[in-house]
Design goal:
By secondary structure, the chain is an alpha+beta fold. 33% of the residues lie in helices and 27% in strands. The chain is built from ten helices and 19 strands.
Length: 372
Amino acid sequence: MIRIEEINQKHNRVKELLERLHVKGILLKTQANFCWFTAGGSNEVTIADTLGVSSILVTRDHRYIISNRIESARMMEDEGLQDLQFILVEYEWYEGNEYEAVKSIIDPNEVVCDVSGYGYLSKQEDINFLRYQLMQPEIERYLWLGQKASQAVEAALYMAKPGMSECMVTAEVLRKLWYDRIDSVCNQAAADERSRKYRHAIATEKKIDKYLMLNVNARKWGLVTTITRCVFFGAIPNSLYKQYEDNTIIECEMMAATKVGVPVREVLQKAKELYQQRGYPDEWKLHHQGGAQGYRNREYLVYPDSKQIVLENQCFCWNPSIAGEIYGTKSEDAFIVTKDGPLMITKPASFPSMNITVGLIEFNRPKILEIK
């Protein structure tokens, strides 16, 4: 499928939403929705923002790029939108504004937006839902990204040594990702006791002694995938080996339970039961267990009362974790739900691995890397 065909199909999804909401236009301002609708384009200048620097106005028959003069050429040329049936509506950065540009096309009262606070009615949840079910080209891009992320994280841990800081190892991951122009929008590294104490241990200058748990959220074409890997310097203690294996089995059971049409809260309930069965009854309370993924780190988290239903070709990433007495563990790889079972996005690239069978599904999962 060529890019314009993908965009046309997404335009059809938006048109169906226009009819359901009884409005004439939808304004997409977030980076996530811009990337989604343009089939991998970007309105980003800084990854620290949720919003982009240009917006898309979608009506029944047309799609517009609403942009100030600073960004317009890059949107149309670098992002290739001039060849994809986008109409540029440009304004001066020093005297115009986006609202007036939209008003020149359509009554703003007939427009809904993917964020609130800009003079439009927000329909964020309805709009974001459009991107949850991935198309085949998105799946192909995701698998490429997952392979690159897996290779980068595992290669960085192979070169890690005691005495290096968490941020030094993280920097090596980022260096490898940037060779392929992949951003990491979240970087976590937990050395030794930090792995037990903190569920979201952002990388610091702490030096590694025996153990490091490393995590990145890698993004390209707007798609985000998450991966966690662990390394131990010396012989892995039996207690840590068992804890990590239990942790990984819980994740595999959660992935196997994530089937088309299943309420997501049932997967969380399954996780709670698995923690209990393996002797960690309260661990699930200490960290969210993950949820849907796609054009955000998590499109949504799953809670005991969540109402969402698993969709076909939807990405998920569960992240069960166990604090342990000395070291913490987490098992975390992204996958796509298909009618034939989980399709792994991230998976062992060069790490030692183990096979875990759940029902008829066999998972190949990474072990802790042992460096003696």
